[in-house]
Amino acid sequence: MMFSLIILSISMIALISADSNSTVNSTTANANNWSDRCAAVDNRVAGLVNQYNENNGTKRFSEITNILQNVITRAEARGYNVTTLQADQVILNEKITAFQANYSLFIQKLEDTRSYTCGHSEGEFQSALLIARAQLALARGNAQEVNQFKQTIIKDIKDLMNKAKAAAEVRKSARITARGNRT
Fold first, then answer.
1. I need a labelling partner for 106 at 20 to 30 A (CA). Which of 14, 37, 51, 160 fits?
2. Half-sphere exposure of 87 (CA within 13 A, CB side)
3. Does 139 lie in the same domain as 66?
4. Better-scored residue on pLDDT, 43 or 75
5. Percent share of the chain, pLDDT over 70
């Protein structure tokens, strides 16, 4: 009987130690799993920040501004009234500045999400990410306004070209009339 109690005790100790070993292994596996998840999230956020920094649209908007400035310069040199285009240029610059401000704020908010301790932030990371997404929506709205305003600029340039053509036709008619009167 004593012998069976000793064997039973040894069996129980072995089971308990095996169970505590599996708990330790399970806890270690969970910690490694969280660590892997946290590293993946951090890498993903860093990748997004790099991607958004590279493809932020400011190059495209600066090209639009440069083209408009070239059109204004050429039209002024030819003596055309460019006050409408100059007003468009001011509005365009304001819209681009608003876009750049909101976009920079979005990047900052996205980078701020990296400051939260993964697994221990109690939802702060998620709320910071939602704030960053809302800021991105504002920046995208600004970009859409710039693109829509680009259509207004194109219309104003076409109007200026039509006026220039009409003025050229009037000058041509005047020259033809002047030649006809000389004969």
1. 37
2. 6
3. yes
4. 75
5. 77
Q: Above pLDDT 90, what percent of the chain?
A: 40
CA distance linking residue 102 with residue 95, whole number of Å: 11
Q: Using CA atoms, how far apart are residues 82 and 156, in angstroms rounded to an integer?
A: 10
- The C-alpha atoms of residue 95 and residue 147 are separated, in whole angstroms, by 10
Question: Which residue has tokens 């969280």?
Answer: 34
Could you tell me if 26 and 94 lie in one domain? no
Q: Which value, in Å, is the radius of gyration of the alpha carbons in the chain?
A: 35
Q: What is the pTM of this model?
A: 0.71
Query: Of the candidates 11, 31, 55, which is a domain's last residue?
Result: 55
The answer on 90 and 43 residing in a single domain is no
Q: What does the pLDDT look like over 59-74, one tens digit per residue? A: 888 899 999 999 999 9
Instruction: Report CA 123 to chain centroid distance, whole Å.
Output: 24
Domain range for 142: 57-183
